[in-house]
């Protein structure tokens, strides 16, 4: 049984992929009355019903769109992490943190060496030729 993790604003790609693997397959859609919706994964495959509440229409559309976009969103997170790793291989650690705040009187010299370029290319998954 899959359990719900604690509420967080962080994206847990592994958990999302697990849910996608176990969830109903196919492109999802929604129809019905504005306050009484049905989410479908095919012509005769009901995923869930959202009964009689004011935001059922909007909520059902959000569920459907997020479900259908989930694979692309997970892949975009992977690509972001890959690019961040490549950037971190080139930039000094001070510039790779959450903020890029540097005092006005401080000068940061970024030296890009062949070794750093190789490390960045490796982080991007490129193989030496």
Quick summary:
This protein has three helices and three strands.
3D structure, described in words:
The protein is built from three helices and three strands, in the order H-E-E-E-H-H. A three-stranded antiparallel β-sheet has the order 1-2-3, covered by helices on one side. It starts with 12 loop residues before the first helix and ends in a 6-residue tail after the last helix. Helices cover 43% and strands 14% of the residues. With 129 residues, it is α+β, with helices and mostly antiparallel strands. The chain has one domain. A hairpin with a 2-residue loop joins strand 2 and strand 3 (45-50).
| Largest sheet, spatial ordering of strands | 1-2-3
Topology pattern, helix = H, strand = E: HEEEHH
Please provide the count of β strands.
3
> CA-to-CA gap between the ends?
46 Å
Uncertain parts? none
Q: What does the main sheet amount to?
A: 3 strands, antiparallel
Number of helices: 3
Beta-strand content: 5-15%
Percent of residues in helices: 40-55%
The number of domains: 1
What overall form do the CA principal axes indicate? elongated
Mean pLDDT: 78
Output the structural class.
alpha+beta
Which properties best describe this structure?
3 strands; 129 residues; elongated
Itemize the secondary structure elements and their pairings.
Blueprint: H1 13-22, E1 29-33, E2 36-42, E3 45-50, H2 56-90, H3 114-123
Antiparallel strand pairs: 1-2, 2-3
